[in-house]
Amino acid sequence: MKTKLTITIIFLFISSTLYIGCKKYEEGPAMSLRTKKGRVANKWKVDAYLKNGTDMISDYRMATASELFEMTKDGNYTTTVTYTPAFGGGTYTDNGTWEFINDKVDIKTTSSVSSTNVDTIHITRLKNKEMWHSFMLGSDKYEVQMVPAE
Fold it and tell me: Span 122-134, mean pLDDT?
């Protein structure tokens, strides 16, 4: 009986250690049955926008009326952003390719419209219905939390 209890405790300890060790993204999830590419492939919109930890979504919405970031499993993306009249109105559209880099914790996008437009974002959370990422602009850290657009 003692042997079974000892083996069970050791098994639970090892399992919990492996489970915690599987967490790739800072904000999770620890595990997922869907592939990372399958979780990224979606139509996304911005749900939260932070600058240096401060909620800036109202400032973001003063400039941006709507946005749609579509990423496909085959590594293509399309971005459409509509600006508010206060910021000149109009719509910006871009498309190109995306790929995981740095052990799938970062995504690099390369624009087809402007080959010099290459961006990298750092993924902090990647679930089926949430994709959080951050990027640096000068000394400021921006965090964007996205949810499915549809």
Answer: 94
